[in-house]
Amino acid sequence: MALNKNHSEGGGVIVNNTESIMSYDHVELTFNDMKNVPEAFKGTKKGTVYLTPYRVIFLSKGKDAMQSFMMPFYLMKDCEIKQPVFGANYIKGTVKAEAGGGWEGSASYKLTFTAGGAIEFGQRMLQVASQEFYPGPPMMDGAMGYVQPPPPPYPGPMEPPVSGPDVPSTPAAEAKAAEAAASAYYNPGNPHNVYMPTSQPPPPPYYPPEDKKTQ
Q: Residue 136 falls within a domain, yes or no?
């Protein structure tokens, strides 16, 4: 879990480009059960909470010492959705610090959704977190994102398919297939399609031995 690692100077949240986001405003964040509570963890934080496939990010509003707070799923435990008779619904749990995260130890947290959304956010968070068994992507500069590797190059002419038992292969048919494959057109902009030429006529039909006897 990291402190003040996921916000920009302009007050925006920083996430990787591949992360889809679900967010709720009017959320309050509080901490307890900490030893030697750092100044940034004291009091009630007000802001927006974001859910991604790998973590929860809280972004404070105003000049709070805690501008952003990130909790990856693999460091969270004992998460619960609470619906008190009086007061707004909230999500609670515990989170551990990670190396280089700006704080040490562990803490209990409470996310109170003063304008609603705790149940929807909490259920979705538990669903996504149950699918994660490994750390999320590394933290990155907000101007950067994951770059999807280009598709592999076209491997070249494909060998003619193996003939079935009803249509045995002949040298003439194999030569035609090799010629057509060699002249195939590959479009780098659409790597999943290979365009075959249609100007050349198909090979002559094959006649089984029984048909030849009747000719």
A: no
